[in-house]
Amino acid sequence: METINKNEEYVKEEITRSMQHLSDKRVQHAIKVQSYIRSYVTDFLREAGYIEIAPIIISPLTDPLNHPVYDPKIHAYGGDMWITQSMIFHKQIAVQELKKIFIMSPNVRLETEEKSKSGRHLYEFTQIDVEALEKSREEMMSLAEDMIIYTISRLKKEHKEELEYFHRTLPDYAKPFPVITFEEAEKKYGKGFETPLSKESSTPVWVVDIPLKEREFYDREYPEKPGILRDMDLIWPEGFEEASSGGEREYELSQILDRIQKKGQTEEQFKWFIELAKQGIKYTAGFGIGIERFTRFVCGVEKIEDVTTFPKVPGRISL
């Protein structure tokens, strides 16, 4: 009975907290900004010839991720399925026929509790996921730059009052954004280079050529530089850190099998994707940008939970 009473009290507190959160004027303004961002990025991608497809919520195939999270696994119909951690494999499959796609994709990543202090982690968030057939990393970097510049420009032009509410002045960013390799960034700033690099930058900056140990198995290695991937991360300036992650995808069966082994994973885990590779796939490239993180940067707020309606902060059961 004591446990039940504690649970009941927690539910009451959570409902109160949620209502107080939604009544906060700063949160209301940030939610408006997020709505505009969602609209503008999809406008841009449609104009660029990208087709929106529906998100996948549950599947026997999802992103393994390269950092510790709680396992969002469900057993049903005689097998295991996972709540989508990202649509990386589904993007690579769908784009074989649809050529250029995007998804406003809900992601669930049950991060460990210490991530609650970062100000930029939610365990449920939305990612604008983009993928294109037979495109290079550099082409996708250029697309992402155009999309960000377009979105911020429209916000400044059409919703200046929202930026003024947050006392936020955003410059007119110009492409190409600066580029630094992972090795160069680590040499200059040390292993935790993302924070100082972000704080020092006045414009978004790309980190490229990321080591295999820092990534999942599915991204493409340089043929001439084993262990280094044709990947890119975009870092927001002013200390807001990661904006986007992406790269070229591995598509040759032998490479996929080799990389799964190198990462200490099993072919059974990815049998669905391996079967696709056996049948033959063409190379693709893409990226994902967190909508809440985009909003946090535009509004210049400290905590990511202040830019969304029902924030899921790691370590807490929330409405």
Automatic annotation (TrEMBL):
Residues in Aminoacyl-transfer RNA synthetases class-II family profile domain copies: 100-311
Entry keyword annotation includes Nucleotide-binding: yes
An example Gene Ontology biological process: asparaginyl-tRNA aminoacylation
Gene3D superfamilies attached to this UniProt entry: Bira Bifunctional Protein, Domain 2 (3.30.930.10)
SUPFAM superfamilies referenced in this protein's UniProt entry, alphabetically: Class II aaRS and biotin synthetases (SSF55681)
Record bears the keyword Secreted: no
GO molecular-function terms, A-Z: asparagine-tRNA ligase activity; ATP binding
PROSITE patterns xrefs: AA_TRNA_LIGASE_II
Keyword field: Aminoacyl-tRNA synthetase, ATP-binding, Ligase, Nucleotide-binding, Protein biosynthesis
PANTHER family: ASPARAGINYL-TRNA SYNTHETASE-RELATED PROTEIN (N-TRUNCATION), ASPARTYL/LYSYL-TRNA SYNTHETASE
Protein name: Aminoacyl-transfer RNA synthetases class-II family profile domain-containing protein
